[in-house]
Amino acid sequence: MTVNTTPISAGRALDALRAGHAAQRAGTLTASWMLHGRPGIGKTEIVSQFARETGSRLCDLRLTTIEPQDLRGLPFYDHDTQRTVWYPPQDLPDDPAVPTILFLDELTAAAPSLQPTVYGLLQERRVGLHVLPANTFIVAAGNSVDDGAIAYEMGTALSDRLIHLSVVAEAGDWITRYAVPHGLHPAVTAFIRTRPDLLDTTEAALQGGRTIACTPRSWARVSAIMGAIKDRSLRDTLIAGTIGDAPAAEFILLERDIAATVQVADMIAARPVDRAALYPANLHGLTALVYALVTLAERNTLPDTIAIMADIRRLATLRDDSFARLPLAELATYGMELLIDRALAQGWQEAFRGSPAYDAYLRDRTT
User: Fold this and answer.
1) Residue 234 in contact with residue 248, Cβ under 8 Å?
2) Domain check: are 132 and 188 in the same one?
3) Helix or strand or coil: residue 36?
4) Using an 8 Å Cβ cutoff, are 362 and 340 in contact?
5) Which of 168, 202, 228 marks a domain boundary?
6) What residue spans of the chain are helical by DSSP H?
7) Residue 265 to residue 277: CA distance in whole angstroms
8) Cystine design at 141: which of 35, 67, 232, 234 (Cβ 3.0–4.6 Å)?
9) Which of 112, 159, 168 has its CA nearest to residue 140?
10) Among residues 325, 343, 333, 326, which one has the least CA distance to residue 285?
11) Measured in Å, how far apart are the chain's first and last C-alpha atoms?
12) What is the domain range of residue 132?
C-alpha cells in the first residue's frame, strides 16, 4: 500500500513533531505520529534530536524484538483478592514528572500479533490498566514493503490511529540541518551539494539488484571513515563498501581534488595579503572550502574565517579573471549564512559586529 500523504524532508518532519508537541502541551491536540521512510533516511535521528531539544527521556522500543506480553506485562495471581493482576513493563513511561518520548521503532516490521496491543497505546494511550502519563509524546517509525526491508502492510485499524509523515531525502535540507551542524567531513557535504541525486539511491539499487545503496546514514558513515582511517587505499575500500563502487569512485576523485586544494589551516595562519593564492581554483574546491570553514570555525579563529569567507566574492579581482565564470557571490552568501548560524548557535555573534571584513561584505552586497 502507498503512503498517500505529502512527502516532506527530514527537517520538515522535525518541524511537524515540534508543532505537535507544542499543541499537546497546550492541550489542543493529542495524537500519535508515524514516520515513514526508507532505511537510512534519518527517522531515528529525527526522534533522537527531538528528544534532546525537548529535554525528554527517550523511551525507545524496537518492536521487532518484543512479544505482546512485553507490552501488556506479566500476569500475577493476587491471593487476597483472588484476581489476576498485571505487572506493567519497565519500558513504558510511568512517571508524570518526567517528559518522555515513547518511540515505537520498526512498527511496520513488528509481528502482526503485536499490533492489537499497540492499538491501545496509539489511541487510548494505555495498555490494560496502565495509562501513559499526560506528558508522554508518542512517535512510531517504519519502512514499507517496497523499501526492500522486512515489513508488513499496515492495516486500516493501525493506520487510522496515526498522523502519517512520509520522510524523503532532500539534499539541501540534509546539508543545512544535518551535515553542517553535525560537522560532517567537508568533502562529503561538498559532494552531495554537487550530486544531490546520490544522497539516496535505494530505489535504483533495488531495481538494479544491488545490495549497497547510498543513504543519508551511509554518507554519515563515510564521513566517519574519512576521519578514522588514514590509509588511503583501505579507506577507499571501506567507502566503496558503504555506498557502492560507482558512487565511491566519483566521491574519491572529488575528495582527492579537494584534499589537494583546500588548505583551511594554512589560510587562517597566512597574512591577509597572501590568502588569495591559497583559494581553490574550481567550484568543487571552493564549495568544500565553505563547508570546511564553517565546520572548523572556533571563537578565536572566527575573525579570520569571516574574512576568508567574505573574500570569496572578490576572487575575480583578488586573483584572476578565471574566477569570474564561477557563482562566487552566491557561494559567499550561502557560506556566510551557514557561518552566521554556527556563530549564533555558539554565542559568537559579537565577532560579526566588530568585523571590518563583514562590514565590507555587506557593503559589496548592496552595490
Assistant:
1) no
2) no
3) strand
4) no
5) 168
6) 10-26, 43-54, 68-72, 115-123, 156-159, 171-174, 186-194, 202-208, 216-228, 232-243, 245-261, 264-269, 283-296, 302-310, 315-318, 328-346, 350-353, 356-366
7) 14
8) 35
9) 159
10) 326
11) 55
12) 7-168
338 and 258 in one domain? yes
CATH code for the domain of 44? 3.40.50.300
Summarised one tens digit per residue, pLDDT across range 57-111 is 999 988 877 776 667 666 677 778 878 776 677 778 888 999 999 999 988 888 7
Mean pLDDT of 355-359: 93
Query: Of 168, 200, 223, which closes a domain?
Result: 168
Confidence (pLDDT) at 120 = 84
Cα distance between residue 288 and residue 328, in whole Å: 13
Residue 151 confidence class, pLDDT cut points 50, 70, 90: low
Q: Is residue 230 domain-resident?
A: yes
Task: Tell me the mean pLDDT in the region 318-329.
Answer: 90
The reply to whether 335 and 202 lie within a common domain is: yes
All three cell numbers of 39, joined, read 532505511
- Residue 81: the pLDDT is 81
Q: CA–CA separation, 33 vs 166, rounded Å?
A: 11
**Alpha-carbon distances of 121 from 127, 137, 151, 207, rounded to whole Å:** 6, 11, 20, 37
pTM of the shown model = 0.84
Q: Are residues 20 and 132 in the same domain?
A: yes
Q: 48 falls in which pLDDT band (50, 70, 90)? A: very high
pLDDT at 335 over 90: yes
- One domain for residues 159 and 184: no
Whether residues 327 and 352 share a domain: the answer is: yes
Provide the number of structural domains found in the chain.
Answer: 2
Q: How many CB atoms lie within 10 A of CB 181?
A: 16
Question: Across the strands, what pairs with 60?
Answer: 103
Identity of the amino acid at 33: W
